[in-house]
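Salicylate hydroxylase, pasting as requested.
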Amino acid sequence: MSAAVAIVGAGVGGLTAALSLARRGFEVDIVEQAAALTEVGAGLQLSPNASRVLRELGLIEALEAVWTEPDAIALVDGKSLRSLASVASGRFARERWRAPYGVLHRASLQRILIAAVTAEPRCRLHLGHRIDGDAEQAIAIITGRPPALIIGADGIWSRLRSAIPGAGTVQFSGNVAWRMTVTRDAAAGLLQPDRVTAFLGARAHLVAYPLREIDGFNLVAIIEGKETDSVWVGRDSEDRRRDYLEAFSGWNTGLQTLLKNADAPTYWPLCTVTDGAWQNGRKTVLIGDAAHAMTPFAAQGAAMAIEDAHELAACLAGSGDIGQALGAFEAKRRPRIAQVRRRAAFNRFAYHARGPFRLGRNIVLSMKGPEALAADFDWLYGYGAPER
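C-alpha cells follow.
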C-alpha cells in the first residue's frame, strides 16, 4: 500500500502507530486537535510487552535516560503494611521476559515519541485540527492528500468510533482514580524507591512508584465511585476529596497523611469501552482506548495501545488488501485484549477484596513462591518475546 495513512490522535498509541508504519515504508499523517502536545497525568508503567515494541522502534536508550527499572513489584496490606507478595523485576524482567520494565513520567514518553516522529521523514504532524463530519474529506483538506486508511487513536471519547458500525460505547466502570505526585522527603519511610508497590484495602487500593524526573513518587489511588462520577471533570472538590479520604480510613496513618497532604490531586472517573467492532472492513480502524478502553487494574492501558500500533502496522505491511489486513488485525488482537480485560477484572476483585475473600486472597498469595508468582505474568509480559 503506497498511499498515505492518516492517524487521528497524537497520544501514545497514535505516535507509536506512526513510527511503526513509517519504519515499514508507509507515508503517515498524524492529525491532532490540540495546538500543542502536552500530556495529562503523571506516571506510567511500561511493562516488558510494551518496552519490547519501543525498543524495536529504536527508543530504548532515550527511555533508559529518564526512567527507573524497579527491582520488584510488591503487594502490601494498606493497613498493616505487611508484605503479601512480591514479583522480581529489574534485571530479572530483562532475563525472564526479554525486555525491561520501566516507570516514568508520561510527559517523558510523549516527548521521546514526538522527537522520533518529528525526525522521521515519512511522518507529518498536523496540530490544531479537529475532525468533524466526514473524516476522510476533512483529513484530505488538512493534509492535502486523501487517506487510504484512517486509524482512530483518539482515545476513549473517540469521534472516529461513530464511523464504525457496531462499535462499543463508553460506560462508567464504578471506580474513580485520584492521581498525584509526592516528593521523596514526604514519602520517606513509607514508599521504597526501588519498587512498584500496590497497597491493598477493602474498598480501595493505592499504587506508588518512583519518578526519576521529579525525584519523587507517582501515586494512583483508586476507590469505588458513584454513578454521578461518570461525568468527566478532572477537578478536585471538597465533597469528592471527603469521599476519597474516607475510602482510606482505617489504613496505615502514614499513608493517610501522605494522601491528605498531597498537592493538587486530580480526579479521574474510570470509564471503559464495551465490546464492539473496531473496524469497518474498508478503511477505518480503531486502536487503543478508542477501541477497547479498560480499567487500569492490570496497568496495561498504554501497553495495549502500543501493542495495537505495532501489530496493525505488521498486518498492513503483510497484506496488499486493506480490508483483509484490518480483519486480520482485529482477529489477532481480540483474544489478547479479552485476556487482559479478564486479568484486570480479577485484579479489581482481588485488590478490593473484603471479609473472607480478603483472607483467602492473602492465604493464596502467601503460598505462592517467587517462581510461581513470576510465571503468572509470562503470558502478559512475555508477549512477543523471541523464543529462547
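Note for the archive: The two ends are 34 Å apart (CA to CA).
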